[in-house]
């Protein structure tokens, strides 16, 4: 399985709010270059004893700032890891008072190139907000703003519940949620945002709010699908799904099939995927990855099929895949909490979560599955691997998720715009070179092909133009292509109300005017 390793202080909130209100005609903050060391180490801040402040070169700084993706990554002149919600409020207030650009993160798994616009800013590392609480009587999960998926799967399962999740274990639960939260259970439970009940949120002016359907409902609408545009979330509460008893429901276990499809069988495999245009079982989820095979010195498809139910029903749903009988396959049942750890012969999640790698990522939404397009992309990747062997860690993922429960939620209920998507295509280009000049060549070739393949998929996607899931956006797309034309007027009004100076400006930011004024 060597192939897989190639992958992947006394500050007063109302004064700050008044200052922001008086400046609301300004579209963005006028950034300064303040003495961050003096600001953050001022004894008047009265940080909690567990709150850590670090600067470049100090022990712990890299742990608070290192990212999954190092391509077009942000840079930081200081980092703070608040141990309490109150210290998150203080640090946001300090940023507002001194007009210091910042980025609040936890998993640091985001990869949009807009993050790279932050230069010498301040990192707010939320990883110390790591509480995980399952309330069995209320059937809810509450997590701190820095909790990763790997920290919640077993506690939820052990308490007798299931929930929607992302595709890998290392991103933050909250981070995945804010984009919408697509994944294998979208046919049964919908998106992760559909399970979200409430959040605790720190606004750009330092107010701490509880946001839910009954408290700040407009803001609750916006945070469900518009990423981190409106504030720093310190905790979130989700509705859980109790595991049904009885063998007919799988008792919280799933049937999983991992297979490697060689180049000679890909056309046949892609035709099987195309059949899901007509119908796809709500309990079936398919993940397919075009990647390099070191053994064959060629491209291949590694696929992971998961059926959320009893083995007999799962085998029936997977029959056409099983009939391919590729030389490398593994079929077994696993607890739902072990899906991420087990996928890809038990090795894929570690590859997904390998950090500090140059990656350039592009995404496309698809509502019309098209086998010929899959094969075109596969053939182009074969050529790319031959021409650029240093980029053989690149891979293309087809996430074919059922959408019955996702579609059952009215489109206007949340800001998420792409409930009708049947598939998400994710192009992850990765390269390595000790020669900086050659590294630039690899980056240029990767980005050129990334845009080309994105266009290939967009042309047959069934959407009138390119559309992309915000968490998979590269950042060269238009705001309409990310947030949807129908959602933008309401989203922009919320942005202007809650973040008029664009403090949250680095993760595919929304504009504060729409349409843009003066040709902006």
From TrEMBL:
Keywords tagged on the record: FAD, Flavoprotein, Oxidoreductase, Signal
PROSITE patterns with a match to the protein in the record: FAD_PCMH
Classification via InterPro entries: BBE, FAD-bd_PCMH, FAD-bd_PCMH-like_sf, FAD-bd_PCMH_sub1, FAD-bd_PCMH_sub2, FAD-linked_Oxidoreductase, Oxid_FAD_bind_N
MF GO annotations: FAD binding; oxidoreductase activity
Record's keyword annotation contains Membrane: no
Cleaved signal peptide residues: 1-24
Domain of life: Eukaryota
Keyword RNA-binding assigned: no
Cofactor annotation: FAD
Pfam families per record: BBE, FAD_binding_4
Record-stated family: Belongs to the oxygen-dependent FAD-linked oxidoreductase family.
Name this polypeptide is given: FAD-binding PCMH-type domain-containing protein
Species this chain originates from: Colletotrichum phormii
């Amino acid at each position: 399985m060597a192939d897989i390793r190639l992958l992947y202080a006394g500050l007063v909130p109302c004064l700050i709010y008044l200052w922001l209100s008086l400046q609301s005609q300004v579209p963005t903050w006028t950034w300064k270059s303040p003495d961050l060391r003096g600001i953050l180490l001022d004894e008047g801040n009265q940080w909690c004893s567990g709150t850590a402040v670090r600067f470049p070169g100090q022990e712990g700084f890299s742990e608070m700032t290192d990212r999954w993706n190092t391509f077009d990554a942000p840079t930081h002149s200081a980092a703070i890891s608040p141990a309490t919600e109150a210290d998150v409020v203080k640090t946001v207030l300090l940023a507002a008072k001194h007009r210091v650009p910042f980025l609040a993160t936890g998993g640091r798994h985001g990869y949009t190139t807009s993050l790279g616009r932050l230069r010498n800013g301040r990192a707010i590392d939320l990883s110390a907000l790591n509480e995980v609480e399952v309330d069995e009587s209320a059937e809810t999960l509450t997590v701190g703003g820095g909790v990763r998926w790997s920290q919640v799967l077993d506690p939820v399962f052990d308490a007798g519940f299931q929930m929607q999740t992302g595709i890998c274990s290392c991103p933050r639960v909250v981070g995945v949620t804010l984009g919408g939260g697509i994944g294998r259970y979208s046919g049964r439970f919908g998106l992760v945002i559909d399970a979200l009940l409430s959040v605790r949120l720190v606004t750009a002016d330092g107010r701490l709010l509880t946001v839910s359907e009954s408290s700040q409902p407009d803001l609750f609408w916006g945070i469900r699908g518009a990423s981190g545009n409106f504030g720093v979330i310190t905790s979130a509460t989700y509705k859980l799904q109790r595991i049904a008893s009885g063998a007919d429901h799988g008792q919280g276990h799933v049937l999983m099939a991992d297979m490697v499809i060689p180049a000679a069988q890909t056309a046949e495999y892609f035709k099987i995927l195309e059949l899901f245009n007509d119908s796809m079982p709500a309990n079936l989820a398919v993940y397919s990855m075009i990647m390099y095979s070191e053994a064959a010195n060629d491209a291949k498809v590694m696929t992971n099929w998961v059926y959320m139910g009893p083995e007999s029903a799962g085998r029936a749903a997977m029959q056409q895949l099983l009939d391919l009988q590729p030389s490398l396959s593994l079929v077994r049942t696993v607890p739902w909490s072990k899906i991420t750890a087990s996928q890809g012969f038990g090795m894929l999640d570690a590859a997904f979560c390998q950090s500090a790698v140059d990656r350039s990522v592009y995404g496309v939404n698809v509502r019309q599955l098209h086998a010929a397009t899959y094969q075109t992309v596969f053939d182009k990747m074969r050529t790319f691997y031959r021409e650029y062997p240093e980029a053989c860690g690149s891979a293309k993922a087809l996430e074919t998720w059922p959408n019955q429960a996702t579609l059952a939620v009215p489109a206007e209920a949340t800001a998420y715009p792409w409930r009708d998507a049947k598939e998400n295509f994710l192009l992850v280009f990765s390269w390595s070179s000790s020669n900086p000049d050659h590294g630039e060549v690899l980056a240029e070739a990767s980005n050129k092909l990334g845009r080309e393949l994105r266009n290939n998929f967009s042309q047959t996607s069934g959407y009138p133009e390119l559309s992309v899931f915000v968490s998979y956006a590269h950042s060269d797309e238009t705001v309409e292509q990310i947030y949807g034309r129908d959602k933008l007027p309401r989203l922009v009004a919320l942005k202007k109300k809650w973040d008029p100076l664009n403090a949250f400006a680095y993760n595919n930011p929304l504009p504060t005017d729409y349409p843009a004024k003066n040709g902006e």
